[in-house]
Amino acid sequence: MSNKADLFKSDYTKQFELERIETIPTGYERQPRKGVLTNYLLISLLIAAFGSAFQFGFSIAVFNTPSSIIKSFYKSVYNERNGEEMSNSTLDTYWSITNGLVPFGGMIGGMFSGFTADLLGRKYGLLSVNVIVLISTILNVLSKFVKSFETIMTSRFLTGFYCGLFSGLLPLYLAECPPKNLRGSVGTLNQLSIVIGILVVNILGLPDLLGTSDRWPILVGLSIVPALAHLALIIFPESPKYLYMKKNNPVEAEKALLNFHNHDRLLVDQELEELKDEKSILAHNPHATWSDFWTQTRLRKPLFVALIIQISQQLSGINAVIFYSTDIFVKAGLDGDWPIYGTIILGAVQILMTFVCMVIVDRAGRRILLLSGMIGMCISSFMLALTRIFSEKIEWLNYMTVLSAVFYIIFFSIGPDF
After folding, report:
1. Which of 28, 41, 37 is nearest to 273 (CA)?
2. 185-236 pLDDT tens trace
3. Helix, strand, coil: what percent of the chain each, to 5?
4. Residue 163 burial by CB count (10 A; 0-12/13-18/19+): exposed, middle or buried?
5. Which residue of 34, 256, 298, 332 shows the fewest CB atoms closer than 10 Å?
């Protein structure tokens, strides 16, 4: 089999492998080289995360704190068109559709993320998504001037679509560029950037800043800032793994690794050897089909576990908390700007817990964190529902609503979110 495989190798690939083997120091396999986070690698990862994960958090939460302002815009547009006031039930329907289009678009975008990653690569896949970001941002900004909430709805669908693409593309780039011993910690940069984006947009949405009837187009227009910063990624290399495994270009993969690892020859050769072994294993093993996941026991169990984790995360109710936290706090009896401040507190708590999980995840284990987080979320959700049901009869339960929401975010950050 190996002789047959060698027949299909290009001459420059064979020459590259021979030259590289000669540079491998004797006995390096017995002492694996641990990589470090070089400045060059760190900057590339931060740019990638800011343009996609931060954009993700910023975009999905952009209408949270100024929700009352956007609803007033819906009412005024409806009144001008129909000559009558929009009923609360109609407003709730339109607002639910607006928010529901985000996860719907995310579902579709997520389905195309793998295809995009293989077709365009990790780097250019991320960069190409900014075209959709630009279109979505323009629609959001123009909606006030053309007096159309349909453009907001369309923009929200596109927001979900590009967030779905980012959620599939960025983890690949973050996992494939750093050295093996740093991939776990670097992977947390994705979630950390998302929650920072949520907190930043919640703060900018305050009435004293951009959360007013005149300035909210500026708030939604700021989505263009991460997109423009994202363009700086073009000067950094593509994922070495993508170049080696998908493009069959070990020379460019070596150049990328040399740049990322500050020309650490031993580390680069070590990672190239790992890529070669992985590619050899894939070449000698048949690719699994979708039917294999259901017919083969060794594949069916991992699929079941992955589905349960993803379903539990998406059906946990976190989207309701993110999109409606301000409304929840208003109905809980918080006056003035306190509902908005409550939303900001939730974002700060989420960032804090993300840092905590980064510290304890390797000690406690992901399974324990996931189970404890889900159990805590169940209890918090139950308490949140009870406090809303009986708050009219028992006034102090309004404060328990706020507390339940805070604990809900804490347990979500510990479990499904991490």
Report:
1. 28
2. 788 888 889 989 999 998 998 888 998 989 999 999 999 999 999 999 999 9
3. 80, 0, 20
4. buried
5. 298
